[in-house]
Specification:
The complex is a heterodimer of chains A (592) and B (364).
Chain A lengths: L1 H18 L6 H37 L1 E3 L5 E4 L2 H8 L3 H32 L6 H10 L4 H12 L4 H10 L11 H25 L3 H9 L4 H29 L3 H7 L7 H11 L5 H32 L18 H27 L18 H8 L1 H33 L5 H9 L6 H15 L7 H26 L2 H9 L4 H29 L16 H11 L2 H28 L6
Antiparallel strand pairs in A: 1-2
Chain B lengths: L1 H23 L19 H12 L1 E6 L3 H15 L4 E6 L2 H14 L6 E5 L2 H6 L3 E2 L21 E13 L24 E4 L2 H15 L1 H12 L4 E3 L3 H9 L5 E6 L1 H8 L4 E4 L4 E11 L5 H12 L1 H9 L3 E2 L22 E3 L2 H6 L1 H12 L2
Parallel strand pairs in B: 1-2, 1-3, 6-7, 6-8, 10-12
Antiparallel strand pairs in B: 3-10, 4-10, 5-8, 5-9, 5-10, 5-11
Helix pairs in contact in B: 2-10, 3-11, 6-7, 6-13
The chains are: A mainly alpha (592), B alpha/beta (364).
Amino acid sequence: MPNDALCIMRGEQAQLEGMMGPVGPESGRSSTIRRHSLKVVLLIALFCAAIIPPFMFLAYSSLHRLDPSGAFGAFTFEHFAAIFRSQAFGPTLVKSAVYSLGAALLALMVGTTQAWLAERTDASLRQVLYAASIVSLGIPYVLYVVAWILFLGKAGPVNAFLQRLFGGAGPYINVHSLGGMIFIEGILWSPLAFLLLSPVFRNSDASFEEAASIAGAGVFATLRRVTFGMARPALLALGLLVFIKAAESFEVPALIGLPGSMSVLTTTIYQRLTLDMPPDIGSASAFGVLLLVVMAILLQIYNRVAAQAHRYQSVTGKGFRPRVVRLGRWRYIAGALIVTIPFIVVVIPLATILWAALLPYYQPFSIAAMPMLGAGNFVQVLNSQSFRGSIANSLMLGAAAATLVTALSAIAGWCVARRVAGSRSLDTLAALPLVFPAIVLSLAFLEIFVHAGTRIYGSLLSLIIVSAVAYLPYGLRYAQLGVIQIHPELEEAAAMAGARQVGTFFRVVLPLLVPAMISCWLFVFLLAVRAVSLLLLLVGPDSQIVAVALFDFWNNGQIGELAALGCVWTAIMTLFSVAFLVVARRHQLPIG
Amino acid sequence: MRTVGRIRSFLLILGAIATSVAGQAEVQPAPPGDNPAMYRGPDREQRLIEGARKEGQVTVYSSIIVDQALRPILNGFEAKYPFVKPQYVRDDPPQQLQKVMAESRAGRMVVDVLESTGLEVSVRAANINQPFWSPQTEAYAPERRDPENYWAPTRFSYLGACYNTNLVKSGEAPKSFEDFLDPKWKGKIAWSSTVIGAILFITGVRNFMGEEKALTYLQKLATQDIAPIASANRVVVDRVMAGEYALCLDAFLHHPIISARKGAPVAPLPLDPVLTVVSSVMLPKAPPHPYAAMLFIDYLLSKEGQERLQAADYFPAHPGVPASPDLDRIVPQKIGLHVNFIPPAKMNADLARSRALYQELFAK
């Protein structure tokens, strides 16, 4: 780690030397490139060390038979052949595509609406959107999904209400359907879409919109052709990101899809791992490899679009102020949306969880059940040693993973933003973990850690490493936003004023970078502590974490304790999120 | 430069924290000495205690639900042998198998004692475990033990149906396997889509009906649109309690009783013959703490350890420890039903065919 700090320093120094190139001797120029290259080479080596081994495992196990002993046997293409031969492959593929596309579109629609309302209109209560999105990032995935099952399920309040309204027996809404999967996954990603999109709207130049209205375009035409037109690359990039994440998601397909016999690619992987004894790693890996190919193509498209997004955004240098749209009569509709969206994203799931937490055993919403409400589950959760132990581990896991990701992202982000030679490959490499379905990544790391030795296998450190690898792409995107804002002119000005290079870095660059690093840190922290499928297989006796404990509760049918623990956990995460919001606001970061 | 020093020392501290975190999981090497697994000498207990005292730790992988029974057992063990710190990882059997296989392949066992259901054959085929002898096993019925001592029984499970008492009146509830074919239950039945769920149900049906009749039965059952829940059997019972489904087919029969005690609208439905499986304890070949492992196995199989299972509403395998009284109404011998016992070897031998049937008929 100390090397990394030195790297930053040397890099900055080299950068300054580079800028002063014409003045200094020619040899200074070449040493600059060498120092930059060294830093990039070191980072590439580090990223390779973390990211290449899981790839190797995946490829190897997809091409080898598994002996009864669990060891790899002869080379074979059988795993791939079996997948393509199976009749279910085609329909599963189609369903995967529809599901992922649907979820991406929904997340984008909800996220864009929120971002536009919050950033570009004079609607009241806009702050509610930020608060709701950030609280929702604190709710563990599994619990979020469970809450929606309870709310939309056959016995849930929605179906009960519809039944009372229309009579008849049948459930009117079947949550265990493709539509249910798309709805829940889309809603799940909408806060992230909102938080990543709002800076795009905030930073877009109003002069184009003014030009449009002078030319006679109406409010909606301006909105459609200019505002969203300018945001299109960012929207597309984000849509692809959610598409990739949905395609490799595991919780929603397993918990929502399977009971309705709705299988997507990751469900098949899941089933092969749970229905076979020993678990069929070969088939799962082959599925993983196929998924990787699809994801790699999408990532290429995404990268191309993301690169364009920067071009569309290149207005940050000059002074401007985004135009606020006066809503007038539309205020009421905007107000309704501002109340409705957080209601769906946060209030419904949280209320369902709280209801379940207060009951001795789960039953649907009813007045008759009111007298049974009590704090018994909370008492049990707060008194339990293992719950408390797992909370401490989870916080440590999140904090360490976030620290690691932030440090790496800051350096890598700086290299990418300053277009240091080799930084393109760094960018691509750091984005690779995106293409790993969590369940495949954890399988690969199980194999790697168990070979790495008993010190690391099952330890909290191993969970930290896996989380850091998995969330590096998010951290990097965030850090890049922060670094791009720092103009080299500032560093140059400090140098002109006689500051030494080291002083320039610590007194100019670092203070400017700190806010972005803090928001990146909290962002990764919140993502890391809520992951489940990524870490289920890797937990050991000393590394029990909240998310895994939650999943065990769910499997054990301890819904009351599950919900109570979830409430406590969400409260703790909300505290962190509030800190996130406060820090971000104070430094006027591109979030919140 | 002072700031640089500060940053450097901060990073060094971070590194130190990371190292200490990694150190937590470090296991001490097994003490030198012979393998205590099969030792039968008169000083056996003394030697185990001495060895375990040096080891100071035992790691148990179990599928027993932590809050219900695993923690009480570990606490009881620790109270009796305070010099051995027991720690656990709770997983469902498939994940357990994945973990122990990975450990065994890498030649680095972390697990000392493996307690699970349905893994006996796979674990032995993978050359992971070794035979062991405990004086406690002598009390157990020979036909429920492994003649080669690769596993010893810890608990029984009785599986059957359950129903929501709000949605189904007790007189109308199905009473036999055939009753579940009634079209009025179409779309109202759920089961767990796991090895211990639907697959085991299919194995059970094949075992007592014979292949031909079983196939006919399962084909008819498949038209009932049974909802597969991708979680443990317990979750299926929860869905029935919540009113999502009227019936389930593969409950551990004590689960609905435990929930009904709290007032939940659910009741068990033992179907004749009652599907019965055994869970067992196994000893890995190179456990990091072999003495503590044997000491724990002794405790788990002893009357004292088995009474902890009884108190937690499990069905102890020890013949001298009956199930708790209000669970009697599902123990087949007590209610005059037949036992459809699936021994581990049978369960494993039938797995591939049952899974194929499941995927062909039910996972469309």
